[in-house]
Fold this protein.
Amino acid sequence: MVRKIDVQPTFEPGELTFPSIPTFQYERDLEDELDEGNLDEDQAMEMLEWMMSIRAFEQMILALRMQAFEPLQGTGFEYRGPTHLSIGQEGASAGSCAAIGSGDWITSTHRGHGDAVAKGFSAITRLDEDTLQERLEQPEAMAVDESDLVEAAKLDHIYRTTCELFGRANGYCRGRGGGMHIADFSCGHLGSNAIVGGSLGIATGAGFTSRYGDEQRVVLCFAGDGAYANGVVLESLNLANMAQFKNDLAEEPFGLPVVYVIVNNQYGMTGQQRAEVTGVDMLARRAAGFDMDCMNAEVVDGMNVLAVRDSLERAAQIAREGDGPVLRELMCYRYQGHSLSDPRTEYRTKDEEKDWKDIDAIERFKAQILDAGVASEEELDKLQDKVDERQNRAAVEAVEAAQPDPGEVNRFVFTDSCCDDVPAQWTPDEEKWEKAERGEDGQLTMRKALREAMAEEMDRDERVVLWGEDVADYGGAFKVSKGLLEAFGRDRVFNTSISEAGFIGMGVGAAMTGLRPITELMYSDFEVQAGDQIWNQAAKWHYMSGGQTTVPMVIRSATGAGKGYGGQHSQALESHSTHTPGLKVVYPCTAYDAKGMLKTAIRDDNPVLFVESQKLYNEKGEVPKEEYTIPFGEAAIRRSGDDVTIVSWGMVAHLMPEAGRILSEEHGIEAELIDARSLVPLDVDTIVESVKKTGSCVVASQAVRTGSYTAEVASRVEQAAFDYLDAPIERVGSADSISPQSEVLEKEFLPDAGDITEAARKVCYDK
């Protein structure tokens, strides 16, 4: 809803037309590029070296799996892990990374070793001596001869990349990520992704960070042809192309500087993009669905490193000038199967493979180098020997490198850091928000308390941004963000399309690259729509990167039980996320806690799922105007008692006082009421100490009983306080059913104060 945009009925006859998408337009060769000054001889040899290095790296894996890698014969080393090789695609990786700067970012795929090698080399050749020296002085670096800093850095790069594949502590990700998740944030590699298409949201978010911070960084997002039928990919493309970034809704119109690179190696796994699993001949046609200019898309010969470099240079320039995002489709081929367990014979012919190998990117470029007189056959052989020796030495050293400490298996699941101090460049000059007026009792509704928390943090830190469905002009479906757009502008508060996976993924990427986004899911049910981005991306990147990055984002998720919204808009799903290491989960039930804990969540450097009950938005409570936060992992004792401990959170915690009153007044049972507030981390100590005093326990939530987090809490209490329990722990939850629309059925489905009371009476009478 933007009143500035007038939507009128227009039904004039006409037809839609689409811009043409150029295909295979590059017709120059190396001599032309040298004559025109587009690159010099050293740059040409660098690109060849990068391609040779990628192939040497991949052939090492191939030989290891076949137990035929000579440098490691007799060591007893056995390679374990995935074998998704990119042999044949070297031109795509090298040409693309040659087209961008050392400060630019890339995201990559499960088949991303080549991208990692190329991005590292691309950065190393552009770094100054001091920065190269710093890289070589890191504890994880390989002990090398530093007389030639560039060569030493290349050897170290191959060593640390190999270490990561071998699961060694000196790998870029300290052995936590492996080949499918390798990342080197120091040179702009934001990580490879084992989920097909999983990185497009991250790349989109990184592009937003660059746009927002006016950083002039370009993001290259590598993904295979198989990804471009994936939902999150299409959502991300739509989000990146939202008109509000480039039209007069924007404070400073500028398109996201992202170049989406389709590395089309002809097969998803075995599915063929053309004539089988899609209805288009070339995936670049997808661009027509997202942008009036077809994202300046091109189809490029990915087996020609010069064609790739030329096209990606132009794409990066378009993006830097604010006319992005851009799409490129690189047509290439992988010589091996999806992995080395794939023999290829069921779906390929020998003739097809031969035809592609006849235009091999490395051999084609070597021929051009010879024709242009850049190097001789002897010099090319020496270069190949150097590349092979570098890879062999790195592999030998990697096998001998230390294994990660088994005692640190949980290291990097969470970070202990938070934003105590805002960097000067992100500290606003003035406050833009006036605190809500309180009555004489100092009370606010939870809705206003949440709004005030976000506003205060946005006034404190310009890295805090908010997006989601309808959060801008409309103020969100439940008016929690009403007024924030007017105070902070559309650069910081804006609507997204109905694309939960896409905009949560965008939040992950923005958080990984320096911002602190708040993303709003309208209903907790939509967590499932965004599940991969919450549970596989946000929760895991601090760990998978070996602590190289943090993901300081808040996912606000509203649960709507008790409003008659039925089975797909009423679920309490917090238990799903408590089962995901790396994700903090909080669920307050008072206005005071909602404000204090949301402020804590925004400052935390971990991803936080912040659950809000829609039934509580209008509930009032005292909320001080003074600055305060509430730490996670500290439960609140709402009422003291000696007979039974009742533990809950969210909406059911709101019901506990009524249950406590009934127990006391009608049954003479004095209950100790504990509002957990924070589920991950959980304050087990407070709960256990209470149970030691009362001898009995009830754990209650609004989630359906089977599989609920109430079982986890009960289990921890039993383990820590078994000798103090005088009766089995009781659990209360919704019925193991589907949330119904009918009022009478919904009342039966949901737990109420009476259910809590009955459970408490049972454990007390069983003592």
